[in-house]
Records
---
Amino acid sequence: MASLDCRVNSTARRRANSRTDRAVPFRHHVHIDHMPLIITREAVPEDFDRYFAEAFEELGPESRHFRFFTAVRELPPGVLERLAHVDGMVDAAIIAFDAAADLPNHPEGKPIGVARWMGNPEGPPELSVTVIDDYQGLGVGSRLMDALLVLARKRGVRRIIADVLRENSAMRALINRYRAVVQPSGDPLIVRYRVDV
Ligand SMILES: CC(C)(COP(=O)(O)OP(=O)(O)OC[C@H]1O[C@@H](n2cnc3c(N)ncnc32)[C@H](O)[C@@H]1OP(=O)(O)O)[C@@H](O)C(=O)NCCC(=O)NCCS
């Protein structure tokens, strides 16, 4: 177990150092005491009933601000309902678990992140990715993005838009790995990216 701990800590340190190199402050400590085993699968509506509340609790104010553009304490029921609507075509999501986390009533492990596209009648679907705070910087966001883009290709989605707060360095680093093209957003605080699937 000790050697596994070291591997997690060294991964976290490496990523922390690479952020320091880019003059981005390290935001939090990683508290995981085991090597995460990241698995992903397509999300179904029941996942949101089962896991949404506990995962939301594990997002700090900054993560909530970056994800919802305001540091919400709780989400209005209408937003929750909208997020839980995944039909696999117009709206689809990938959920990530840490299968090495041994939790009661969690046969697949601990839910640690979700990536989705959300249909938009006025244009391409919109992308979002969320990883709970303790698992950020460990490659979970990248795994979610990879899986979401594979799913999008399978379902015939050709283009996805992402609106990202300009100050959100982590999401901007993540999306830039997918040859994202910057589009006009009409808002100086928001960078709009187009990802060709
Ligand atoms: C943005 C987010 C999804 C990234 O997920 P993650 O699991 O931390 O990302 P990964 O570990 O896969 O890293 C992806 C890239 O982001 C970089 N990164 C991660 N955290 C970072 C940080 N705090 N600052 C700067 N870059 C960071 C990584 O170095 C990596 O880039 P590289 O390949 O060039 O090294 C996650 O930080 C998050 O959920 N944030 C809060 C919610 C949010 O902002 N969602 C996006 C709304 S659209």
---
Amino acid sequence: MESMALRRSSMRQLQRCMRTPCPLYLDFLAPRLGQHTRRFASTTSEAPPSPKPRYVLSKQQREYLDSALRVNQAGEIAATLIYKAQTPQVVRSHPHLRPLMKHMYEQEAGHLETFNRLVAKHEIRPTAMYPVWHAAATFLGWSTAALGREAAMACTEAVETEIGTHYNDQVREILSWEADAERRGEELDEELKEMLGIFRRIRDEELEHLDHAVANDAKEAKPYDPLVDVIRLGCRTAIKISEKI
Ligand SMILES: [Fe+2]
Ligand SMILES: [Fe+2]
């Protein structure tokens, strides 16, 4: 039921985007000319006026964020589906893992909610690959859990290694913009600062999942190396594709 609801909501979002032209840029990060748009005004009206001028992002930086949010939403959809497919099998043979699986799933569901909100707010086009990622993530979760607890944990280790690195790259990129802004005597938009905080928090939670997987014998999976290598390659490929499509 939950996955159907998720699917319906994402499909509705896709259909909305197909009916109305989706802006390429994040409005709140648009150049100064765009700062009087409704959304921008509504999101910053409560912030105290800053003594420093706002750092204006380049077209390339705005496109980077557009891709980043699309990929992050796609990744979190996949993460929730993987845990959803793994949990029944893992918990059936290892009931003591129920709280851990529930905890990780709930965190992923929270991440997805966050990116659904950001994607909708900034009118980002969700990935058109949604049906493919949906099928692939469900199959990955189901098949690794069928191989056993260790393989399920190795899947988490592989996915979280790639996703954690991916979020970390985004954090570093925004920090480099912050440093650039400081050099110019400017500062980042409040919403961008908030987004940086969100990326940091989610990165840390993904790395926490990675630690849980290793602590629960991910490295005992057989065959460990090919399994982890294939999943990591799949994640990197999905990220690259979702950046564009
Ligand atoms: Fe996540
Ligand atoms: Fe995660």
